[in-house]
Amino acid sequence: MAQEDVFKRIVSHAKEYGFVFPSSEIYDGLGAVYDYAQNGVELKNNIKRYWWEAMTLLHENIVGIDSAIFMHPTIWKASGHVDAFNDPLIDNRDSKKRYRADVLIEDEIAKFDEKINKEVAKAAKRFGEQFNEQMFRQTNPRVLEIQAKRDLLHARFEKALNDNDLNELKQIILDYEIVDPISGTKNWTDVRQFNLMFKTQMGSSADSTMDVYLRPETAQGIFVNFLNVQKTGRMRLPFGIAQIGKAFRNEIVARQFIFRMREFEQMEMQFFVRPGEELKWFDHWKHTRIAWHKALGMGDEKYRFHDHEKLAHYANAATDIEFQMPFGFKEVEGIHSRTNFDLSQHEKFSGKKIQYFDPELNQSYTPYVIETSIGVDRMFLSVLCASFEEEKLDSGDSRVVLHLPRPLAPVKCAILPLVKKDGMPEKAHEIMNMLKFDFACKYDEKDSVGKRYRRHDAIGTPFCVTVDGQTMEDNTVTLRDRDTMQQQRVAIADLPAIISKECSLNNLLKTLPL
Ligand code: GAP
After folding, report:
1. Minimal-distance CA residue to ligand 1 atom 4
2. Ligand 1 and 260: CB distance under 6 A
3. Is the CB of 221 inside a 6 Å radius of any atom of ligand 1?
4. Does ligand 1 lie within 6 Å of residue 339's CB atom?
5. Ligand 1, closest atom to CA 260?
6. CB 510: neighbour CB atoms within 10 A?
7. What angle do CA 469, 475, 476 make, to 5 degrees?
8. SS3 for 266?
9. Beta strand pairing status for 476-481 and 487-491?
10. Which of 294, 311, 336, 479 is the most exposed place for a label (fewest CB within 10 A)?
């Protein structure tokens, strides 16, 4: 099945099984805003717990905060968001649709890549086992011709972005005859900058209102609290401040489900270090973070780093952790060495000294910062995509199963009486009451046991416990494993240890490098 179709299946599965709903659905939805449903919220909370505990429990020198979404508007002036948090947009006069000029051009570049991939696929079919893809890409005249055209466009595009040259972006769109996918015309307006921050007013009377922004990142809430945390927590460098919270961006092009949203959630950690030591710590966090991802066991080959060639003016190193989504490798997390830019800017704009006195060096300075910033929703999407399988069974049957990393599963154990009589429901409730303090459990007595297994496969429940006639005699149950579908007979008393071994977040945390 084409990856595009797989993705559509995942999106509809997420709705059908109570993971993600479109926001305000009965009013026909709200663009790029989503609600997490009964299973989705549990999965999301488990992801957040995994991140929070990996940061704050495993590192003695990282503490958490929860700063407000509204902040003083000057913060966004200092951070550069008022002046530079823009996307270049262009409108089509016929369809009246708005696009990101850079995305239209990126899509055009992607068409060249697709053409090359088609040539490669054709040749692979023709040459079979003998095919040497690398050699073909480097020598085939047709591929080289397409590649040269692609590189030319890419270089022109990159220069226009670097020079912030909006006229040149429009000229590229015209020169490459890029048409509006809806109207099919080239009737474009000029390219303009569009600020992504949502603005609103705070205050009750006309004189006292002021413009405030919904934060576009949680990071600034950390920077402006640097001194508060450092002093009250008696923190010594190097140390980190972690935060999880909502962020808002008025994205022009919102697509790919929860990949690009207008309201989303971030998990950010700013690690403050001595100037000159930042690249060592950048490397440290790069490896620590990829290990955190890989520990989930979704396949090491699904991750890659994408080091930034073009750095923001204040950064001296940056990389993305990309995950293989059905629509290609995409950024899930960014790791940035942001120098002392943010703290210095806040010092300048607030007029307050923001420095750290280093007792070992006996001097004060503005700390440098390594930032790790991951989107909760993108992480959620990566987990969903990697776990989803439409499995053909030996019996000729098929099932949809979510092979969720077990500690993240919304329900760890389903408890199913085989029939609704002979004391089985009561026994099942007894087991539920024993387990529910440690694990998220669900009691389910409706439909045949086979149907109940399928329902729990579809939401990724690692274990199903079935209470049957034998249970009433010897206090054993059948324990069915989601992935292997194997069933074994176990004593009720052994259930906590078995479930805990596989599903406990602590065990997962213990696999992380310290
Ligand atoms: N403080 C740095 C910062 O905000 P970013 O690369 O703009 O950096 C960090 O965002 C992460 O936030 C991204 O890697 C992504 O996972 C997530 N993110 C950004 N914009 C998003 C959006 N519109 N929808 C969902 N997640 C988003």
Report:
1. 217
2. yes
3. no
4. no
5. 24
6. 11
7. 75
8. strand
9. antiparallel
10. 311
Cα 265 to Cα 1, 93, 126, 247, 255: the distances in Å are 31, 34, 47, 6, 16
Predicted local distance difference test score (pLDDT) of residue 205:
77
- The helix (H) or strand (E) run that includes residue 160 is helix 141-162
Query: Residue 47 carries which side chain, given as an amino acid letter?
Result: I
> What per-residue confidence (pLDDT) applies to 396?
87
What is the C-alpha to C-alpha distance for residues 69 and 264, in angstroms, rounded to an integer? 12
Positions of the chain with pLDDT lower than 50, given as ranges: none
Please compute, for residue 478, the number of CA atoms within 13 A of its CA located in the half-sphere on the CB side: 15
Angle 96-102-107 (CA atoms, 0-180°, nearest 5)?
90
Cis peptide before 462 (omega within 30 of 0): no
* Residue 237 contacts residue 272 (beta carbons within 8 Å): yes
Supply the pLDDT for residue 514. Answer: 78
Q: Which of 289, 380, 346, 355 is nearest to 40 (CA)?
A: 380
457 near 482, Cβ under 8 Å?
A: yes
- Closest by alpha carbon to 325, among 359, 358, 302, 344? 302
The pTM for the full model equals 0.91
Measured CA to CA, the distance from residue 67 to residue 220 in angstroms comes to: 9
Is the shortest distance between the CB of 261 and ligand 1 below 6 Å? Answer: yes
Q: How far apart are CA 276 and CA 203, in angstroms?
A: 44
Ligand 1, pocket-test mutation among 197, 249, 264, most atoms within 8 A of CB: 264
Which protein residue has the closest C-alpha to ligand 1 atom 14? 333
pLDDT for 130: 86
Q: Which numbered atom of ligand 1 lies nearest the CA of 219?
A: 1
Q: And the tokens for 351?
A: 């007029």
DSSP-assigned states of every residue in 369-421: EEEEEEEHHHHHHHHHHHHEEEEEPTTS-EEEEE---GGG-S-SEEEEESSS-
pLDDT score of 417: 97
Closest CA to 241 of 265, 223, 258, 214: 223
**Count of C-beta atoms within a 10 Å radius of residue 255:** 11
401 C-alpha vs ligand 1 centroid, how far in Å? Answer: 29
A 10 A CB-CB count for 326 gives 20
User: Is any atom of ligand 1 closer than 6 Å to the C-beta of 216?
Assistant: no
Query: Which residues, at least 6 apart from 343, have a Cβ–Cβ distance to it below 8 Å?
Result: 223, 226, 354, 366, 367, 369
| Ligand 1 touching residue 266 (CB < 6 A) | yes
* Strand 317-325, strand 303-307: pairing: antiparallel
| DSSP E strands, 112-256 | 192-195, 199-202, 210-213, 239-248
Could you give the CA distance from residue 404 to residue 383 in angstroms, rounded to a whole number? 7
- Ligand 1 and 342: CB distance under 6 A: no
**pLDDT the model gives residue 116:** 93
